[in-house]
């Protein structure tokens, strides 16, 4: 894993606020570690990574191959129910099965494979540079906007273009403008069409519209998107419905509903990863000359975990362990649940807040943040 050499500055921890029933608590202040502590902190996390990488093998290969089989089998079941079923019960069952397959393929397979988590297997079907996932986003666009920009510059305003996706004001450190009032409605639009938001993210359409990107570059960026989106639209809304003959309306609507469910679910999980109440943001100035330990610290303090059972974690592609994923993005995701307690214990010893909670608790705080900062003002975090 490459770690950029930029700097981190934190603020002293503050005393815990007086408890008041049913009132939101102040966000935990960012931990302050001196250079010696940061070096020791990094060494402990590096040791976890070294241990896991040395242990990779058949167990991890079985996991990802099992996920591929389950996703394919569930997709076949869902399509079969849509094609050959009759009545609303089989249609709903088919939609849920197909949506589950798409979620599993996108989150537990596509996302993790394209992070390079399984490149060590030398399996061409699981190669990070050639994997083609079931979504309108072109792989090369996602690998750049997500693997390079987001993971290296996590929650750094102006550098991490995933923070707010260029659409949302989520902190008072971002400028407010009248159009920001519409962001709760913009969020509903993005959530239901999330694969399209992901697909156009790396094209930088806003930059082109502001005259900061020449037409030839914009056209070059649009090429992979148009090609991939065209294939996906043809498959979901032309080919599969046509194969169903007189059942084509049932299949067309089923595919549309399955994509909608997948979009809403993946959006909720991904937004819970970095936009919860206690996820911190950072400025360019305070991340200059960042050491490895400071980079690790920023990944933890800019990420949020979700708590749940094994099936829940699988349905999130183990992005419910967003903290561990950001520390070790190229380690197979099935290892995150087992290393999470160790990471949490290390954080406790260094006085670092480990941001975790149930899905509804975390997601409510995301929705509140979207609504709150749609309006002017807002209190800047004390540690910012």
Automatic annotation (TrEMBL):
Residues 90-356 form the Fatty acid desaturase domain. InterPro entries: FA_desaturase_dom, Fatty_acid_desaturase. Pfam families: FA_desaturase. Residues 10-19 have a biased composition (Low complexity). Residues 1-21 are annotated as: Disordered. This is Fatty acid desaturase family protein. It comes from Coralloluteibacterium thermophilum.
């Amino acid at each position: 894993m490459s770690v950029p050499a930029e700097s981190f500055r934190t603020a002293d921890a503050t005393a815990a606020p007086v408890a008041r029933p049913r009132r939101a608590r102040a966000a935990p202040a960012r931990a302050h570690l001196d250079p010696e502590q940061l070096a020791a902190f990094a060494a402990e996390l590096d040791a976890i990574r070294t241990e896991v990488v040395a242990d990779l093998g058949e167990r991890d290969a079985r996991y990802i191959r099992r996920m591929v089989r389950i996703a394919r089998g569930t997709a076949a079941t869902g399509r079969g129910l849509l094609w050959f079923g009759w009545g609303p019960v089989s249609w709903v069952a088919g939609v849920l099965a197909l949506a589950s397959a798409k979620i599993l393929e996108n989150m537990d397979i596509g996302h993790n494979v394209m992070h390079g988590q399984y490149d060590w297997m030398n399996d061409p079907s699981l190669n990070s540079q050639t994997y083609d996932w079931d979504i309108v986003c072109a792989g090369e666009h996602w690998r750049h906007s997500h693997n390079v920009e987001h993971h290296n510059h996590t929650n750094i305003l102006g550098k991490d273009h995933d923070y707010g996706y260029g659409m949302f004001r989520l902190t008072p450190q971002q400028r407010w403008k009248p159009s920001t009032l519409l962001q709760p409605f913009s969020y509903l639009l993005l959530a239901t069409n999330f694969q399209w938001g992901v697909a156009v993210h790396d094209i930088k359409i806003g930059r082109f519209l502001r005259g900061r990107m020449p037409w030839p570059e914009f056209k070059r960026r649009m090429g992979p998107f148009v090609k991939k989106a065209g294939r996906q639209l043809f498959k979901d809304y032309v080919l599969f419905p046509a194969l169903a003959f007189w059942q084509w309306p049932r299949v067309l609507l089923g595919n549309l509903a399955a994509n909608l469910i997948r979009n809403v679910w993946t959006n909720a999980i991904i937004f819970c990863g970095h936009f919860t109440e206690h996820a911190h943001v950072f400025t360019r100035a305070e991340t200059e000359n960042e050491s490895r330990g400071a980079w690790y610290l920023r990944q933890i303090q800019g990420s949020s975990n979700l708590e749940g059972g094994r099936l829940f974690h699988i349905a999130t592609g183990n992005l419910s362990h967003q903290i561990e994923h950001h520390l070790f993005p190229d380690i197979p995701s099935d290892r995150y649940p087992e290393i999470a307690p160790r990471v949490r214990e290390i954080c406790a010893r260094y006085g670092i807040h480990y941001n975790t909670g149930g899905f509804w608790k975390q997601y409510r705080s995301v929705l509140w943040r979207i609504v709150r900062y749609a309006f002017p003002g807002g209190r800047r975090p004390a540690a910012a």
